[in-house]
Amino acid sequence: MIKYIGYNFAVTPKEPATEILIAQLGFAGFESFVENEDGVTAYIQEDDWNSEILKDIQILNSGEFKFTITEEVIEQTNWNSEWEKNFSPIQVDDLVSIRAPFHENPNLKYDIIIEPKMSFGTGHHETTHMMVQHLLNLDLLDKKVLDMGCGTGILAIFAEMKGAKPIDAIDIDNWCYENSLENVERNKCSHISVFEGDASLLVNKKYDVIIANINRNILLNDMQSYMNCLNKDGVILFSGFYKEDIPVIDAEVSKFNLKLDSTIERNNWVALKYKK
User: Fold this and answer.
1) Nearest Cα to 162, choosing from 209, 126, 202?
2) Residue 7: helix, strand or coil by DSSP?
3) Looking at residue 94, what is its pLDDT?
4) Which of 4, 99, 180, 210 could form a disulfide with 89 if both were Cys (CB 3.0 to 4.6 A apart)?
């Protein structure tokens, strides 16, 4: 029987510390995260755990944030039943439904079926919701698209529904890679290729539209790679950061002669559309 070690992190102030903490814990081997009003609970299989697991989590040693940490051992959990209890269907602009297989189809123009397990991207988070809104306003017919940091594959799936092809979906996390493959099949998509990896996979690639819903630091670090593979007259969508981060993102993008075309804001999170 698989056991998990759960760490409850109460964080003050919560953002952006929680986002950074999740990223660093992911690299350390934690495989699932549940955000709450105080911070986040992170889970790791007992076989992957050691008593020094938090030693190299840099943000925990930052003087900018205060952390209260509690730990517990958790017996084998049916993760599907856990998220089913909390995953309600959503709709975006009365045009897109995002639901689990067991939810009733509301018969909107676009119907995305997602079984997220522990991957990011159910549409409930502000950044995913806003990216769907941006994609609604784009002509994607026969456009070559990259979904970088694809999570559940939701944005790549929606891009195919809007006529994009071919589409590459990339995530560094193995759980996300596997989950994207499942969701691509579940939505009967035939033009999406899913890859496990990072921006190093973008060498010699070219795209008309790039979707990058990742945290600010990764976006800044990989900006050159994105720009190298964006076609002339291409469009790039960025999210995964806050309104106050816009100046630093915009300053970096401006170096490549892209212009900010439109901004969507939701609960202080933002999604930016740039045109080449």
Assistant:
1) 209
2) strand
3) 95
4) 99
- Is 145:155 a contact under the CB 8 Å cutoff? no
Amino acid occupying residue 222: D
Q: pTM above 0.85? A: no
- Whether the Cβ atoms of residue 239 and residue 272 lie closer than 8 Å to each other: yes
What structural domains does the chain harbor?
4-77 (3.30.70), 126-275 (3.40.50.150)
Beta sheet of 110-113, edge-to-edge order = 90-92, 96-99, 110-113
- Residue closest to 239 by CA, chosen among 200, 209, 265, 201: 265
Tokens of 141: 């017919």
In 10 A of CB 10, how many CB atoms? Answer: 16
Given its phi and psi angles, is residue 188 left (phi above 0), alpha (psi -120 to 50 degrees) or beta?
left
Q: Which DSSP helix (H) or strand (E) runs through 27?
A: helix 17-28
